[in-house]
Amino acid sequence: MRSVLLEILYEWSKIPYQKWFKKEEPWDISISQLLKYPKTSLGFHLGSFLLQHDFTPQPKLENHDVFHVLTKTGITVPEEISMQYYLLGNGKKSLYLYTVITIGTLLYPDKFRMFRTAFRKGSDAYTFHQLEFKKLLDQPLDTIRTTFLISTSCK
To answer: How is the chain split into domains, by residue range?
Structure first.
């Protein structure tokens, strides 16, 4: 039930968030274009992630999927919340992030240990949340993770 509630809130908030709060330009890139990048690159891994989960790139929200790829965070609701904790630990600040963390913590108090671990991992990494990932799509994924000390799996 709690997952359903958060899924509904996400769907309800996604379009206004894209329209009024996201200043970035959409990447205008398809999964097939991403899969043409070298197999070790961020772009290829992003395309594989989207294909694996039957997702399509969401205009102005592409970075969100990049964060999944960089941190190897899954797509369950608790994992989504843990990724927001990871990003908070990394210094990201946004109304959306604070909202997800607040509601998610209230609905998933049993997952707080996982959230705290994710926050610590984000704090231990060099700041990466603000990077222009579109410019890094051709870069090796492992190099990005190593350079920014991005610890994977927020479980």
So the answer is: 2-9+30-147
